Amino acid sequence: xxxxxxxxxxxxxxxxxxxxxxxxxxxxxxxxxxxxxxxxxxxxxxxxxxxxxxxxxxxxxxxxxxxxxxxxxxxxxxxxxxxxxxxxxxxxxxxxxxxxxxxxxxxxxxxxxxxxxxxxxxxxxxxxxxxxxxxxxxxxxxxxxxxxxxxxxxxxxxxxxxxxxxxxxxxxxxxxxxxxxxxxxxxxxx
Length: 190
Known about the structure:
The chain has one domain (49-189). It starts with a helix and ends with a strand. It has 2 helices and 13 strands. It has helices at 2-21, 54-61; strands at 65-69, 75-79, 84-88, 93-95, 97-104, 107-113, 125-133, 139-145, 150-158, 162-166, 169-173, 184-185, 188-189. It is 15% helix and 38% strand. The strands form 2 sheets. A 10-stranded mixed β-sheet has the order 5-6-7-8-9-1-2-3-4-13, with no helix packed on it. Strands 10-11-12 form a 3-stranded antiparallel β-sheet, with no helix packed on it. The relative contact order is 0.17.
């Protein structure tokens, strides 16, 4: 009898500790709509690249590459088929959970989500890229990092980042033959 009572008390204690560790047992609440800074339309919907029409896939492939701001080459945004990389000398991140939206003939939007976010609500957006093409065919990129509430740009397509190893660390630079180029950190996956 004492053994059963001890077992029940231990189970109750463990259950109580587990419940105390839960912040909220109510159903999940929608995340607030982040400030998009006027970068994209409010009613935008996005989808994975494989789900888009072939013509759209071709347009997106033409957007792949590295985009740089003018001036010091201390930040770069790179878009690949299934990955978005944001490089800077302060912090760098890579996203594999990316979706696309064609806003118009001259505007595409790429939205990056955390790798574990699968409901794709507006509150889960991490980085937004807006690509616009002018009448001459030049593509300009604007980037918004949601958590920072900051929009940067314009970025223009340029050469690929170059990998540099120094003191056991990996960095990325605009030109590894130019020692004055700022070193950008290796991207951490998100």
